[in-house]
Amino acid sequence: MAAAGLVDGLTAAASALQASADELNRLDGYAGDGDLGITMAEAARALKAVLAANLDMEAAQLLSTCGAAIARKAPSTSGTLVATGLLRAARVVGDASLTSVQVLERAFAAATAGIQARGKASLGDRTLVDGLDAVCTSLRESVGTGQGMAQALHVAAGAASAAAARTVDMEPKVGRASWVPQRALGHPDAGCAMLAIVLQAVAGGITAGGGAPGGP
Q1: End-to-end C-alpha distance for the chain, whole angstroms
Q2: What letter does residue 165 receive in the DSSP assignment?
Q3: Distance between CA 115 and CA 84 in Å, rounded?
Q4: For residue 160, which of 200, 116, 126 has the smallest C-alpha distance?
Q5: Of 87, 73, 157, which is closest to residue 115 (Cα–Cα)?
Q6: What is the dihedral of CA 200, 209, 149, 3, to 10 degrees?
Q7: 65/107 Cα distance (integer angstroms)
């Protein structure tokens, strides 16, 4: 996975998180603390600081450094989960024999496993895990059909958006939202919505001429 493309993708993700902070706070406020946007804006600032200072890092080291920075700067539940995902992904992106889409699929699979273990959430609990599972499925299919990075990201972004939409009718089973599940119904899970926003920004950056994470 080429670090230059990864920097572009992470920068797009960070900018999207900052731009959507109010919306994420609003969604999180229905049944949560209402601070997801604040936390993710802090995480985005930490990401951008790391990226600006480490443009020449290899992908694995860059992901690990970003994860460690978010763990320090945004140490809430959501910040810790995002940091965990980046740190887990860093462990699996060093195989130069794989295509970029294969590396991305492995990175998301590792991140999902780490987030699921750390957050004690299962598929169907109406959490970020539901969105991540949909993205992992999408990326596996993209690997199987030989899609390039740009197409794989667009399809994955669509899968994340569809997963977020499905959570509107799901009852939360873990976390603070599970204390008042009826308040969450009718609104998408904030974590799933966040994932969709991030992937849409990364995929949109490719359409606008930005570099794909990992190259072609």
Answers
A1: 10
A2: H
A3: 6
A4: 200
A5: 87
A6: -100
A7: 15
Residue 164 lies in a domain: yes
Which residues contact residue 71 at a Cβ distance below 8 angstroms, ignoring those fewer than 6 apart?
79, 80, 83, 87
Classify residue 28: in a domain, yes or no: yes
Residue 215 has pLDDT above 50, yes or no: no
Express each pLDDT in 65-97 by its tens digit.
999 999 999 999 999 999 999 999 999 998 889
| CATH number (domain holding residue 79) | 1.25.40.340
> Under a CB-based contact definition with an 8 Å cutoff, are residues 143 and 101 in contact?
yes
Residue 205 and residue 49: Cα distance in Å, rounded? 20
Q: Is residue 215 part of a domain?
A: no
Give the model confidence (pLDDT) of 108-155 as tens digits: 999 999 999 999 999 989 999 999 999 999 999 999 999 999 999 999
The secondary structure of 202-214 as a DSSP string is HHHHHHTTPPPTT
Distances (CA, A) of 36 to 89, 99, 127, 174: 22, 34, 13, 16
Q: Select the more confidently predicted residue: 208 or 179.
A: 179
Closest CA to 36 of 69, 83, 78: 78
Range of the domain at 156: 3-207
Give the dihedral sign, CA 152/157/160/162.
Answer: negative
Rounded distance between C-alpha atoms, residue 100 and residue 93, angstroms: 9
